[in-house]
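Thread: quick sanity check before group meeting

JM: Hey all, I'm pulling together slides for Thursday and realized we never actually wrote out the predicted structure for the chain we discussed last week. Dropping the sequence here so it's in one place. If anyone has concerns about the input, flag it before I start.
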Amino acid sequence: MVLEKLNILSRKSDLAVIQAREFGQILSSNFPSIKLHYITKSTSGDKDLKTPLSEMPTEGVFTDDLRDELIKKNCDIIIHSWKDLPLDVGSDTEVAITLDRADERDLLFIKKNSTKKINQKNSISIFSSSPRRQYNLENFIKSYLPFKIKNIKFENIRGNILTRFKKFTEGNVDGFVVAKAAIDRLLNADQHYFPDTKKNLLSYINECLWSVIPLSINPSSPGQGALAVEIRTEDTDLKKILSKINNIVDYKNVTLERDELQKYGGGCHQKIGVSYKNTHFGKVKFSKGEKDDGSSFYEKTIYENNNPPYVKPTSIIEIFPEHLSDYNFFKRKVIESSVKELSQTKDKCIWVSRQSALPQGASIDKSNIIWVSGLETWKNIAERGIWVNGSADGLGEDIDPKTKSLTNNEWIKLTHLDAPVSRIKNVIHTYELEKNEISLNFENKNYFYWMSSSAFKYAVTKYPNILNKFHFCGPGNTYNEIKKILGNDSKNLTIELSYKEWKNNILPSID
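JM (edit): ok, ran it. Output follows.
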C-alpha cells in the first residue's frame, strides 16, 4: 500500500494538538512521503466544564464524538490520551498502536504563598475531580508534606491545563493535582506552533512548590501518559504501516492496566489506580484502590522478573535478618564540614541516598530540588520541615527521574565517605561509617537480605563462606556492587523491592 495522505483528528485543546503533532513527527520521520493534515473537534467533555468527570453519563466524553468522525470517514486516524478511552471502543474501530509512553505519574503543586496559611490552619484545599487521586492522596498529603495537616478538602475543577492553572493560581485553593505527562508535553511543545504555552505555564509553576507523586502511593489511571492511535478496524493496510512505530512494551502495559480496571468494573468514577513499569530487572506492578464493596487493595510487586530461581528455606533460622533490629552493621558519624558545604549548595538536584545522609540541622537553600531514594526517607525529611520533590520509589538510582522539563539543575548526591561510584558522580560526603561488632553467627544462615553493599562487604570479611549463599537486595547501587563482588556467583543474587516483600516471599515455604 502506498499511503500519500493522512487526516489526523484530535480534540481542540493545546495538549491534544501537541499530542497529535507528536504522533505526526514520529510518523513523518519514518515515512517522510506521507502528507499530514491535522483536524480538531470539540467533544461533549470539552463543552460541559461544570460536571465532574466522575459524574458524566458516559466514559467516552472526550472520545465518542471523535470516533463518530472516524467511522464516518471524515478522518483517518484519531490521537487520544489512552486514559480517556472507554474500556470498550466497539467493533468499528480499534487502537492500532501506541507511541513511547510519557511519565505516568501525577504532579502535586502547592502555591508558595499558601504555606503559611496551611501551617496556621492545619488544613489544605486541593483542586482534583478524580476519585482515584482523592483516595490515594489523603494519606500522602498528611504524611509526606512538611506541614501538620489534619483536614483536606478536595474541590472540583475542569478545563484545559492552562485554564485550570490560571484558576488555581488566582484563586484561594492551596493545591492542584495534574498528570505529569500533560505538563511535560506542554513545556516541551514546539514554540513555532505554541509560542506562549511554555512561558505562561512556567509563570504559573514558578509560583508553586511541586512534587512528583510516587506510583507506589498513587498508581496512575490506566494508560496515563500514553497516546492511543485509533483507526477503523477495516484499515488493515494502515495498521501494518503504523506497526512500524508501535511501542510494543508500552502497548502491553496499557493493555494490562485496562484489563485490571475491567476486573473492578471500569470507569473514571472508581477509586482505582494501576501502573505497570518496565525496568532492567523486570516488570513492576503498582495497584491501589477501593472496590465497590468498600474493601481496599494495594500491591507493589515484581510482576514479571528476570531473577534467577532459587530453593526456598525450610527454617526461619536460615534467613538474615529475621528482624530489622538484627541489621546493625554500622554507626554513622556526621562529617561536620559537609553541613557547611551543604548549606552553601544552590541550584542543584540533591539526591538523598538515605535519611541519615541529610545531616540534622543542615539548611537547604530553596533553589535546590530534593530527590530521595525511598518513601521512609521522604517521610523523615518532610517531618524535618523540608519540601521533597520526588523519589526513586525504591527502584534505584539508575531509574530516570524524568525531571528535565521541570528543572535543569545539576545532580549531586549525599552519601557516606566510602560509597562506591554510581550514576551521580558529583557527591557530598555527609557521614562516615563506623563498624559495629557482628554479634550474630552467620554460619547457619543461607538467605540474606542486604540494604547496602557496605554491609555485604563487611559481613564477607568475617564470614567469607557466605559468598556462595543466596543473597537478596533492592535494585540500584546495592545490587550493582554486590553483583560485582559475587562475580560468577551472582546467579545467587535476587532483586526484591523491599525487606518486607522479601520476607513475605521467602517465608511461605516454611511451615
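AS: nice. Residues 398 and 476 are 6 Å apart (CA to CA). The chain has 15 helices and 23 strands.
JM: adding both to the slides.
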